[in-house]
Each structure stands twice: as structure tokens, then as C-alpha cells.
Amino acid sequence: MYEKTFPNKRFKITLEFLEKHLSKSETILDLGVENPFSKIMIEKGFSVKNTKGEDLDIDQSTLQNESYSVVTAFEIFEHLLNPFTVLQSVKSDKIFISIPLRLWFSSAYRSKTDMWDRHYHEFEDWQLDWLLEKNGFTIVDFVKFTHPTKKLGFRPLLRYFTNRYYLVYAVRK
User: Fold this and answer.
1) pTM above 0.90?
2) What is the CATH number of the domain that holds 52?
């Protein structure tokens, strides 16, 4: 169904990871507006609600007022100035997060045309681990994977071998 191209490789790995750890009877609050992956989760039988596009750095009311048993934050935390505050507002004891890892050979992503499409954080794995730990979460499972590219050059070659994404499943103690 999903090829090994971006973002299909990421979608395939993330879906397999969710299906490994999550019952379809649980209610997911997916941080961020409805997106191609939240639609895939719904097609696969998961019960998913999305946030409405509010600035989560400032407004965590959806996290505090909605009913959910699991939070997913796929490719969201790197856009936040303060993911710590967002994690403090999570009511559920289960969370799935994926982030792009900081690469030594490439600077953080920043769109020149869309002020919201930029990465304030590009984490090292230990930084996300610590962020979760400081909010009372323990990592149950994780996977790291590469960012496929069909370009030629030194950096695309490095991307073929260097993990770009970190996907974790954590529970609150």
C-alpha cells in the first residue's frame, strides 16, 4: 500500500508502530489539523479527533477539555516553542510522538514563504527522552528511521544512511 518514498515510508512505519501498541477502541487526540496521516488512521479503524489549528504554545484548551485516551503528535513538537507546556496539558497516560532528528550536516528546516512551516526544534533523541521524563512519561518503545531521497549528492547520500526520524510510544508513570 505504501511505497518506500517520503512520506509513504514514514506513514507505513508510523502505522505499523501504532497497530503494534494501540487498540482501535481507544480515542486518539491527534495534535494538529486533519492531515493525510490522520485520515489514514481513520481509514484503518482508529477513532481520531484533531486539534483545530490553534497555536498550541499559547492555547492548550483542547488538550484540557476534550475526552481522549491517547495523544498523537506526529511531526508537531519541532514547530513548538514550548513543547514542555503542551506535554503538561496532556490528560492521557499514553502518547505517541515522532520528531525529525537534528542532522549535523543540515540546518533546521525553515520555509521562506510560510511563517508557520519551520522547525524551532530539531531534537537529538535524548532531548525528547528528557522532555518526556520531566513530564512523568516513560518510553515503552521507539524506532528510528531514515528520510528517503532520490536526489544525488553528498547530503542525499548521508540521508540514506542517517536516521532522520524518531518515533516513540510513552506512558505516564
Assistant:
1) no
2) 3.40.50.150
